[in-house]
Amino acid sequence: MKHVRWRRAWESERRRAVFSPPFLRNITLREGAAPDWDSFPFNARIFAGRKVDIAFTHQTTILVGENATGKSTLLEAIAANCGFSPEGGTQNHHYETDEPRHHPLADQVRFAWKPKVQFGLFLRAETFFNLSRYLDDVDETDRFGNPRPLPVDMLYHGHSHGQAFHRLFQARLKGPGIYLLDEPEAALSPTRLLELLVLLGNLRHDGMAQVILATHSPILMAFPGAALWEITSSGIRQAEYDDLEHVRTLRRVLNDPDAAMAAALGAE
User: What does pTM read for this prediction?
Assistant: First the structure.
């Protein structure tokens, strides 16, 4: 019995050593590629330096930047490389979508994996309704298509938008794999954001998951041990929390709301 326990412990440690995040190590321009830097997606700020060289050195990476800077585009390209549905979900989620499965970055960039993983979750806040509706349909039937009686409170619909987000995170942010989260704060209150950080902390503690998320939330940006990448007019660069423009802006408002509003709205 003691030998069996030792063997299981040894196998578990061996799996962790082989299957250790980050799995996606970097994204670079393919040799011989000739992207059109004046057209989408290469005209986004993330490629402002006319180069593609993004390294992932931490288990958790957080992308920060203004709207339309390329954060979502990058996550979508990674998701496509994993084989995830472009509307969000996993490789196993197959539902009608207007989104093309072939991403425009696919032929121009190289994804370096060690090892390549194709399981986890891709969440897009803007298409969450489609994903949650699909998951409801799947959860309501067994693998033969027969109705499966489920309590109403187990379904994603029938809840508020924020509750549905939170329930999906609780159910799906588990196990090894890569988790791509595009603006997960969209429907969450500050309290719920802290609860999401707990789930992300659990993933990190398990040591077998890589998380890449794009966010406008300074609460999520504060996740301990995450690599912060900020996208500016000059391109993408690593940054410290206190230097992020999002953080500085929020602090100005919280430190002196009246002055911040006067500056934003103009003196009346």
Answer: 0.83
Q: Please, are residues 108 and 33 in contact by the beta-carbon 8 Å criterion?
A: yes
Using left for φ > 0, alpha for ψ between -120 and 50, and beta otherwise, residue 83 falls in: left
- All structural domains of the chain, each given as residue ranges with its CATH number in brackets, are 20-265 (3.40.50.300)
Task: Report CA-CA distances (Å) from 181 to 154, 205, 252, 261.
Answer: 22, 18, 27, 31
- Per-residue pLDDT of 194-230, as tens digits, reads 999 999 999 999 999 999 999 999 999 999 999 999 9
Task: Report how far apart the first and last C-alpha atoms of the chain are (Å, whole number).
Answer: 79
Tokens 């309590």 locate to 151
The contacts of residue 222 (CB under 8 Å, 6+ apart) are 241
Q: Alpha-carbon distance 92 to 76, whole Å?
A: 17
pLDDT tens digits for 106-121? 889 999 999 999 999 9
Cβ neighbours of residue 79 under 8 Å, at least 6 residues apart? 85, 86, 122, 180
Beta-carbon count within 10 A of 82 CB: 23
Rounded to whole angstroms, the Cα distance separating 131 from 120 reads 15
**Where does residue 141 fall: left (phi above 0), alpha (psi -120 to 50 degrees), or beta otherwise?**
beta
